[in-house]
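**Entry details**
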Amino acid sequence: MAGLRNESEQEPLLGDIPGSREWDILETEEHYKSRWRSIRILYLTMFLSSVGFSIVILSIWPYLQKIDPTADTSFLGWVIASYSLGQMIASPIFGLWSNYRPRKEPLIVSILISVAANCLYAYLHIPASHNKYYMLVARGLLGIGAGNVAVVRSYTAGATSLQERTSSMANISMCQALGFILGPGRFFQTCFAFIGEKGVTWDVIKLQINMYTTPVLLSAFLGILNIILILAILREHHVDDSGRQCKSINFEEASTDEAQIPQGNIDQVAVVAINVLFFVALFIFALFETIITPLTMDMYAWTQEQAVLYNGIILAALGVEAVVIFLGVKLLSKKIGERAILLGGLIVVWVGFFILLPWGNQFPKIQWEDLHNNSIPNITFGEIIIGLWKSPMEDDNERPTGCSIEQAWCLYTPVIHLAQFLTSVVLIGLGYPVCNLMSYTLYSKILGPKPQGVYMGWLTASGSGARILGPMFISQVYAHWGPRWAFSLVCGIIVLTITLLGVVYKRLIALSVRYGRIQE
């Protein structure tokens, strides 16, 4: 992870703050190196966490069918949603823990929970019945383990100066994005597929090593390796907003320690506003991810196989675009500031969804045959995964394509042209990572040098909640009223969010700047 070091990491700000004893210590070279080694270990932690989540996403459905034939695509939706629910519950708890104890503790415990979840997933074939519920528990536990993102971001916020903050948060987001790109990538998928569905069985411990269990076993191994690296390298570091070293962090006397940190009341209005902005950003992207497959199948009469292939390429391209955006934002934020970039990101996302509004005299192909697909969530969670693992021998062309007659809006809603769709994808892929990163960065600066674990936990929880509610919202609106109403409502939500940002714009400043300790 050494390659992620940048100019801001090479120029720590040193000096004294009048009247502050704990912060009058210049940062030594040894402290500086140890601090950045610790931060880079957390970059790796975020990467491995993302890989652990996404590396099994393509095999969940066939594995679920194999271990429990009673499971349907509706239950698959609950299995996938359980991850976000677990993360939403666990994030504030791990955040609170990290405020009063060394960050190693919640990090190691959370990773151990993830390792245990992966082991449970590998042994889902053992129970005689109700196997699908064990999978639900396994994915929920994995989400609980992923609650350590609050600890990672709070540690990074406390171990970096204001000048270093944006770059560090961008690196965390970039590692997270790379994990989501590489986890379900075709390379891993192909390697695991070669192992086969039967694989081999280790009779002594009743472990089946096949295309379904190998990904989680690899993830468990990487988790153990991550724990070893955290134990060996991670050290507690804290610097103020100017980059001055804190002499010590006494977790046993947290209340006393807080008194030694430069004081100032946190702007709770700004805190709530960022939570809302972050919720909306993830809500919008979650519903976009959910709707693109049914949308493209309805609008362009793509087969299930085509929709999965083409949209898989599109989502992978968005991941690459996000990495490029994170790199660019690190440079751009130094020139125009985080607030302006956040506003620009929201505007770009609004334009992206506005472009998706149907217009013209051309209408989609109608699928007259009754396919009994009465709910979009089944398409979203089930048909996508089914399509990814569909046998090439199946003739996908025999299945009817087009906009289902069961959706009345298909008869009077114009088609969304492919150029519209692709332009929208590019713009949303540009705006979303900007909004995501700037929300985290501004949030950490607003909170100041105090322990941020609980606050970061609530922010992560709001994002997890958005990933649950977004698909539910868009599925219902799209199924009943079609893309015109769905995307109009999304545009309206973004307008309200931009208005909120305008109202609180001047309040979204660093705590040290607000109290005049540092010039903006």
